[in-house]
Amino acid sequence: MKIVIINSGSSSIKYQLIDMPANEVICSGMIDRIGLETSNLTYVTNNNKLEETLPIPNHKIGLKKIAQLLMDETVGVIKSTDEIEAVGHRVVHGGSAFSNTVIITSEVKDKIRQLFDLAPLHNPANLEGINVASAIFNTAKQVAVFDTAFHQTIPVVAHKYALPNYLLTENKIRVYGFHGTSHKYVSENAIHYLKQNSKNKGSKIITIHLGNGCSMTAIKDGKSVDHTLGFGPMNGLIMGTRSGDVDQSVIFYLVNSLGYSLEAVNTMLQKQSGMLGLTGYSDLRDIEANAEKGNVDCQLALDMNAYRIKKYIGSYTAVLNGLDAIVFTAGIGENSSYIRKLVCTDMDYFGIELDDSKNETRSKEIREINTPDSKTKILVIPTNEEIEIANQVFELLSN
């Protein structure tokens, strides 16, 4: 079964064409920096690799470009869209309506649209991907895999807010959690690795997903038990353009004392804050480069980013009552040795001791970057949300 996987992020599109159940990747690629003049496009097959920098203003244009490449006479890997049996879509927010993978219908699309306000940087892009793919691959089953599904195991003590009870029972206001496809994939790989390579066979893990969107999950015995993102993908860690945790009083002050509209505050917290608000840059590569040149704002932003991660490592170690491993993943987590070093410095109380030389190595495989004496494993595990989505799509359609 040939399955196209479309993972539309807030500023990126990852895609793969996978032959299931062999998990054979026929084609893969990515578009990042969507919305900038310097968007990067990669397209990789067994015989070809294309890299291009070009302006891609939005997800719709990006998805159309990907479809053109898949069917291109020179570098394409399919002759007809009829070869594609299914398209798997990552959808960020499933709310209370979706706890499992589903075939997309008009009703499913309506519910995804109803959740736009809770994931304004993601669900609109996810639905755009669904609509474009439905038109291009019009004979394929369209399937949605929800980021929130993995976090359905978070217990009520952690997912319930200290608000009037009816807001949970009647309005379903609670912690939902996000990046679940990534956290599930890397945690399962981490658990397998620990069983094979560690005397400690326990399963108390903190997964740290760092990209333009960032989140952390406390995972015990393979199940999500707490998570930094909540009702929407906005709180917790400092992100590319999102503020992460902020005192609610700030919002009332902005509205009541400074005259901001609620819409302006929402735009600020979602699109103008985080690393962008602190530095003027949303891409960590730019921030690290400018910090190296002595930009004080960029260095402070990096320190703040790491400090917030450290705080959650401490709180989640308490929740788990121990810690076997921390896992860095996603674009920043996998590639920024500097962020990893900032996070792991002065963390020996938690048994976290980084090996500087191992930290600088690069690999597409799981790698251990702690010292031999470190009580806690420090793992870098490349996430592969596309493979995880393909597995779930194939399982759904095979039953």
N→C terminal distance: 14 Å
The beta-strand count equals 14
Number of helices: 15
Q: Could you state the CATH homologous superfamily of the largest domain?
A: ATPase, nucleotide binding domain
Helix content: 25-40%
Backbone structural class = alpha/beta
Number of domains: 2
Q: How many strands, what sense, and barrel or not for the largest sheet?
A: 8 strands, mixed
Which fold name corresponds to the CATH topology of the largest domain? Nucleotidyltransferase, domain 5
> Which stretches are low in confidence, meaning pLDDT under 50 for 5 or more residues running?
none
* Strand and helix order: EEEEEHEEHHEHHHEEEHHHHHEHHHEEH
**CATH class value of the largest domain:** Alpha Beta
Amount of beta strand: 15-25%
- Spatially, the strands of the biggest sheet line up as 5-4-3-2-1-6-8-7
Radius of gyration: 21 Å
Report the CATH architecture of the largest domain. Answer: 2-Layer Sandwich
Site (Transition state stabilizer): 179, 242
Family: Belongs to the acetokinase family.
Binding site for substrate: 90
Main location: cytoplasm
